[in-house]
Amino acid sequence: MSGGHSKYVPVNGVMKWLDARLPLPRLVYDSFVAYPVPRNLNNWYTFGAILSMFLILQLVTGIVLAMHYVASTAEAFNSVESIMRDVNYGWLLRRLHANGASFFFFAVYIHIFRGMYYGSYKAPREVLWILGVFIFIVMMATAFMGYVLPWGQMSFWAATVITGLFTAIPLIGEPLQTWLLGGFSVGDPTLNRFFSLHYLLPFMLVGLVILHVWALHVVGQSNPTGVEVKDMKKETVPFTPYATIKDLFAVVLFFTLFAYFVFYLPDYLGHPDNYIKANPFVTPAKIVPEWYFLPFYAMLRAVDFDIIIPFTSIVLINAKLGGVIAMFGSLVVLLFLPWLDYGKTRSGNYRPMFRQFFWIFVIVTILLGYIGALPAEGINVLIAQILTAAYFAHFLIVLPLLSKYEKTKPVPLSIADAILESTARAKTGGTP
Ligand code: HEM
Predict the structure, then answer these.
(1) Which residue among 71, 171, 182, 235 is least packed, with the fewest CB closer than 10 Å?
(2) Where residue 119 sits, what CATH number does that domain have?
(3) How many domains does the chain have?
(4) Would you say 273 and 365 are in contact if contact means Cβ atoms under 8 Å apart?
């Protein structure tokens, strides 16, 4: 799938001249025009393009917002209000950026679940997947720091809670937290460095996305059957116009939903407390992160017990550190997915048991998000513990066992076979 020989023919003298010196047009042509993609890609494969659009949107709106934003604890909140009221189209810029973050995560969750269902992480796409996990982690860091910038109550207290987690690390925890904050509590130095990093990290994301797409182009795109392309002529179509038009259509649909939120429900995904200026002396009744962090927040709070060495009272891991390990562990485990699910069959379409566990996993993640928004007390803690255990069990127990013992359905010999088979099924009204 990696392409073979370039079929690029410069269209005019200027392109010919440039091609001989820096073959940039050739690179674009080979990667986004002639690049062969499997002809059976379904709509779930359009989310990479949707994500690319959101990355661009976040960069453009963010850069303009930064021109008017003031990174000081005295001015930040007012500068954001002034963006909303005084800057031309400032209200639109801010709402695009804030809701854009939410929709970026919504799209990335679909993209990740798609990859998990179709086994896109399996050889030879491990590096592609790992780069994706790094992208996800950098996205989270960027969003977390961005949320602090408006300097509302939730900004301040979320930053206080999350940076407080670092104190859980034995020995170096407290100095590390002081170093990160630039002081003993969240204040001016913190806001300044968060602003600086919030500006920097999206450019790192761009770099990671370039590597991600490069890795994709080296190994070639997978497809819903999980069977590799065997016959380039029969089983692939050129990226342009086929995939470009399909991606564009999906981008328009997804952005229509996004626009609905921006224009009709602009504050729906935010928290009302963030319209109150940060006050270090007043703790909000409930501190909750943005919705896209909730499953991880639930895992953080699920560990409310110390882990002791059996038959002694020596604490091996205290509750706070345990929560931090669970939260970060839930991301680290994703890096090992290609080796935890090592079965040969890629696509969930041919793995009946896997498919059921996959949907259970999706529900577990959604429920974790739900419980993450509730107060960590009473039965909620127990439910969060069960769900956290189920999350890890999926990766560490279910997938290795399925890889070994699952009886999979026969996989089509080729993509062409799968297409012919589904066409025949459609013609006979469902019976093969
Ligand atoms: C800014 C974020 C991201 C962008 C712009 C992006 C972009 C893309 C694009 C353009 C594709 C090809 C089209 C498609 O399959 O949808 C793709 C495929 C893929 N992405 Fe991402 N991606 C992002 C985040 C992630 C994350 C967070 C993961 C996983 C943790 C991931 C894992 C994958 C995998 C495994 C494939 C290959 C799919 C296959 O061939 O079956 N990506 N990505």
Answers:
(1) 171
(2) 1.20.810.10
(3) 1
(4) no
> Could you tell me the distance, in angstroms and rounded to a whole number, from the CA of residue 340 to the centre of ligand 1?
20
Flag whether 288 is in a domain: yes
Q: Is 366 exposed, middle or buried (0-12, 13-18, 19+ CB in 10 A)?
A: middle
Beta carbons of 316 and 379 less than 8 angstroms apart: no
The 8-class DSSP code of residue 242 comes to: I
**Contact status, residue 394 vs residue 337, Cβ threshold 8 Å:** no
Pocket test for ligand 1, best of 31, 41, 47, 51 (most atoms within 8 A of CB): 51
Gap between the Cα atoms of 115 and 119, Å rounded: 6
Would you say how long the chain is, in residues? 432
Atom index in ligand 1 nearest the CA of residue 47 equals 16
Does some domain include residue 3?
no
pLDDT along the chain (432 residues), means of 10: 73 95 95 96 98 98 98 98 98 98 98 98 98 98 98 96 91 94 96 98 98 97 96 95 98 98 97 96 94 98 94 92 97 98 97 98 98 96 98 98 97 92 80 52
Estimate the crossing angle of helix 319-335 against helix 126-148, to 10 degrees.
140
Q: Measuring from atom 11 of ligand 1, which residue has the nearest CA?
A: 48
User: 298: which 2 tokens?
Assistant: 């639930």
